[in-house]
Write a structure and sequence with these properties.
The protein has 197 residues and is α+β, with helices and mostly antiparallel strands. It has two domains: 19-67, no CATH class; 69-188, no CATH class. It has five helices and four strands; from the N terminus they run E-E-E-E-H-H-H-H-H. A two-stranded antiparallel ribbon has the order 1-2. A two-stranded antiparallel sheet has the order 3-4.
């Protein structure tokens, strides 16, 4: 059954989503439910059909949903960290986060842009600390996921990524990440061990 949603925009782009369209076994519905939708992925299940002695596949595909448990756990930890005032970051990172979240900015940033930045900063600066409680657990799970996705990669390369939809401002996020990394390195260069080349 095809569902027509007249107005798919039900949240402000500047705030964390507060409601979403409900999914059921048949797909999306036009029923709005409170809260942010959990991150899930859809696993296609082709319907086999027997035709004589051979097996033919139907072109129609069913799907089942699987929760992205790791992503949802990271979202929860970042939300707690955000609500707690960004503890455990450098002074420069704090200044940048405060500036990026200012509601009086000339060009206000979308929530998804801020959350992508917060997540990568959390995983880089905070999650490894003892104060992050479950942070090291998350990093271990991320590393295991990376190794599973690229088992033959030699040498192993640990990497982080933020998935964002078309039109959500990925280029701006990349520029801000470059600025964050550069300004942090410059501001904290005295804290880094010197190397003789």
């Amino acid at each position: 059954m095809t569902v027509t949603i007249e107005n798919p925009i039900i949240n402000s782009p500047f705030e964390e989503p507060a409601r979403h369209f409900h999914f059921n076994d048949d797909g999306i519905t036009n029923t709005i439910v409170p809260g942010r939708r959990k991150s899930v992925y859809f696993v296609p299940i082709p319907k086999p059909k027997t035709k004589g002695k051979t097996l033919a596949l139907d072109l129609g595909v069913e799907t089942k949903t699987e929760e992205n448990k790791l992503i949802n756990d990271i979202r929860t930890r970042v939300a707690v960290w955000r609500a707690g005032g960004y503890l455990g970051v450098t002074t420069m990172t704090r200044r940048l986060l405060d500036d990026w979240r200012r509601p009086d900015r000339e060009r206000r940033l979308f929530f998804c842009q801020i959350e992508a930045l917060e997540t990568l900063i959390y995983l880089t600066e905070v999650a490894h600390s003892k104060d992050a409680n479950q942070g090291t657990h998350l990093l271990g799970r991320l590393e295991a996921a990376n190794r599973t996705a690229t088992p033959s990669a030699r040498p192993y390369l640990s990497r982080l990524a933020a998935k964002m939809t078309t039109g959500s401002g990925k280029t701006v996020v990349m520029a801000m990440l470059i600025a964050w990394q550069t300004l942090n390195k410059q501001a904290n260069s005295t804290l880094l061990p010197s190397k003789n080349l």
